[in-house]
Design a protein that fits this description.
The complex is a heterodimer. By secondary structure, chain A is an alpha/beta fold. In chain A, 36% of the residues lie in helices and 18% in strands. Chain A has 2 domains: 182 residues, Thiamin diphosphate (ThDP)-binding fold, Pyr/PP domains (Rossmann fold, 3-Layer(aba) Sandwich); 127 residues, Rossmann fold (3-Layer(aba) Sandwich), CATH 3.40.50. Chain A has a 7-stranded mixed β-sheet, sandwiched between helices. In chain A, 59% of the residues are buried. Chain B is 44% helix and 11% strand. Chain B starts with 8 loop residues before the first helix and ends in a 20-residue tail after the last helix.
């Protein structure tokens, strides 16, 4: 194992998959000559050439659709959205074409495509550039959605996504690109299955279900609460769809209390689905009502203090944990 | 592989008759409530797709919008599979899961059947991208209606095709109406073909009621593309005799206009050309027509007797697991 950044981990995943399979290509705005808006694709043009690392005009609908068409005849495109906020311009392609093709062609055309890029609020980007899209996309049958929180997960999930025979969205996080973590050496194949959560920290008093940017918040809070004799178990979903509900249940059977901390909006958010499944399957295990921390139900304001108030944060999570623990 | 320019014109007339009789029978079965959802008929436009497939190879890529029955039939999908699809049966070309607007046939390189106006034009560019990526000699034929040319996806796709010099023919089947809105009320240009100029794509106008003109033009363009990949644009002027869909009485146009186009009917025109040249007798024509009607009637019977996909298989068509449903 060695320590690398989330950005480097994604870059390695791209390079390894491009190297492995000649049908894989990377396409998006600024991915080639500019070396990536967030430098995730740095060096790939030099290594793989312009046939496989392809700059596009600002035409999200057009190049997302191009990728889907290429996937219909067996190529394995990786389509980068500069941010998933811009994927909304291509919503029709991502929602109407990619996941529907298999059903509406009677099983003749599966779409092996990866859509990737940063998702969720970054810092003071205001309403149009801060969308957390995981709950929109996870509600669409035919799509798979993963949300890596660490460099290791980023590498392993992206590689798995590229090899999947269905449309997979890899929702990265801008604020995590420079974060560091331990990852297997490049000569060791790292594939992390979609639909497998991971306990990022073991605990016994309360389960915190989290993903993407909220994992770091949860881990920080868990460390802090240890000093107050509250032991929090941190379950990182890693994939939103398929959802590893058993990992959630296993943890709650141990702790009997749960807080969900998510980065999307509360109405029909990821946590709403998780809550439903918990109460349906292990209602009797619960010793307290389930609480959810999400964004406030408002468009994102630019003002820094207001933005902070909208986002899930450590203070909100601590309060929720204490509430479910009656502490 | 048969060079298409030499595909027999009598066979192509047969194909046009098959499409026409298929659509007439589909209309009747729709009214008898054997067919659900939306159903858009191709009657009047037969020479466009027939001319196009006569000009290209069987392994070239074809993709179209929702008025797609003719395209599947022209590509080689059986009338049985097409009618069964309309009936929602497992034996349909999309196993009864797509319906009228979503005909797919991988074996015959028919890539749909797409029902969001303009949304398949980027897909078509992706098919063409794959051809160039793999260094193949194929051409993509992308059909769409005059209604698609004002969608953003259309413009983005044309720009991408021109930028990357992809082997694709954009074939605008201009039947003068996007549902009930005439081109004059939807499009700022005097002629649709001028859209292509904005993307530095060569464009031409073709008489879509004339099989030979469509075939020859597409053969010429496809030939040029095979020599050196590039996009091309054809505005093919045609006319649909029926409303936009089965529920549309088409009261937005006059009887006189419809009659004018009926006089220019693509089937009658090719028939007259062949008769004049001594290549088809009246008896032979009647025979072809009779065969087309019989094929379609047999297809109705096939569709009626076919099973539906069982509910237990519903979830097999959401994610591909490598093994196939």
């Amino acid at each position: 194992m060695r320590e690398i950044t989330y950005r480097q981990a994604l870059n390695e995943a791209l390079a390894e998959e491009l190297e492995r399979d000649p049908n894989v290509f990377l396409m998006g705005e600024e991915v080639a000559e500019y070396q990536g808006a967030y430098k995730v694709s740095a060096g790939l043009l030099q290594r793989f050439g312009p046939r496989r690392i392809i700059d596009t005009p600002i035409s999200e609908n057009g190049f997302a659709g191009l990728g889907i068409g290429a996937a219909m005849v067996g190529l394995r495109p990786i389509i980068e959205f500069m941010t998933f906020s811009f994927s909304l311009v291509a919503f029709d392609q991502v929602v109407n074409n990619a996941p529907n093709m298999f059903m509406m062609s009677g099983g003749q055309f599966n779409i092996p495509i990866t859509f990737r890029g940063p998702n969720g609020p970054a810092h003071q980007l205001a309403a149009t550039h801060s969308h957390a899209t995981e709950n929109f996309y996870a509600s669409v049958p035919g799509l798979k959605v993963c949300t890596p929180a660490t460099p290791r997960d980023a590498k392993g999930l992206l590689k798995t996504a590229v090899r999947d025979d269905n449309p997979v969205l890899v929702l990265e996080a801008e604020l995590l690109y420079s974060s560091k973590g331990m990852v297997e050496p490049p000569d060791e194949e790292l594939l992390i299955p979609l639909g497998k959560a991971e306990v990022k920290r073991e605990g016994s008093d309360v389960t915190v279900v989290c993903y993407a940017q909220t994992v770091a918040i949860a881990l920080k809070v868990a460390a802090q609460l240890e000093e107050e004799d509250i032991s929090a178990e941190i379950v990182d979903l890693r994939s939103i769809k398929p959802l590893d509900e058993n990992a959630i249940f296993d943890s709650i059977v141990k702790t009997h209390r749960v807080v969900i901390v998510e980065q999307d909006h509360p109405f029909c958010g990821v946590g709403a689905e998780v809550c439903y499944r918990i109460q349906k399957n292990i209602f009797d295990e619960l010793d307290a009502p389930i609480l959810r921390i999400s964004q406030e139900d408002v468009p994102m304001p630019y003002n820094e203090h207001l933005e902070h108030a909208v986002l899930p944060n450590a203070e909100k999570l601590v309060a929720a944990i204490k509430q479910v623990c009656y502490a | 592989m048969q060079p298409v320019e030499q595909r027999d014109e009598v066979d192509m007339l047969s194909l046009m008759l098959l499409i026409r009789r298929f659509e007439e029978r589909a209309s009747q079965q729709y009214q008898a409530q054997k067919i659900g959802g939306f159903c858009h008929l191709y009657i009047g436009q037969e020479a466009v797709v027939t001319g196009a497939v006569a000009a290209v190879r069987p392994d070239d890529y074809v993709i179209t919008a929702y008025r797609d029955h003719g395209h599947a039939l022209a590509r080689g999908t059986s009338a049985d599979a097409c009618m069964a699809e309309l009936f929602g049966k497992e034996t349909g070309c999309s196993r009864g899961l797509g319906g009228s607007m979503h005909f797919f046939d991988k074996q015959h390189h028919m890539y749909g059947g797409h029902a969001i106006v303009g949304a398949h034009v980027p897909l078509a560019v992706g098919l063409a991208f794959a051809i160039k990526y793999r260094g193949e000699n194929r051409v993509t034929l992308c059909f769409f209606g005059d209604g698609a040319i004002n969608q953003g996806s259309f413009h983005e796709a044309l720009n991408l095709a021109a930028l990357y010099k992809l082997p694709i023919i954009f074939i605008c089947e201009n039947n003068l109406f996007a549902m009930g809105t005439s081109v004059k009320r939807s499009t700022s240009l005097k002629q649709i073909v001028d859209r292509a100029e904005g993307y530095d794509i060569p464009g031409e106008i073709v008489d879509g009621m004339n099989f030979r003109e469509v075939r020859d033009k597409i053969a010429e363009v496809a030939d040029s593309i095979r020599k050196e990949p590039h996009p091309a644009f054809l505005e093919v002027r045609t006319y649909r005799y029926r409303g936009h869909s089965m529920s549309d009485p088409a009261s937005y146009r006059t009887k006189e206009e419809l009659e004018k186009y009926r006089l220019d009917d693509p089937v009658i025109r090719l028939r007259a050309q062949l008769t004049r040249e001594g290549r088809l007798t009246h008896e032979q024509f009647d025979q072809l027509d009779k065969r087309a009607k019989e094929t379609v009637l047999a297809a109705v019977k096939f569709a009626e007797e076919s099973p539906e996909l069982p509910v237990e298989k519903l979830h097999d068509y959401v994610y591909f697991n490598g093994a196939g449903p």
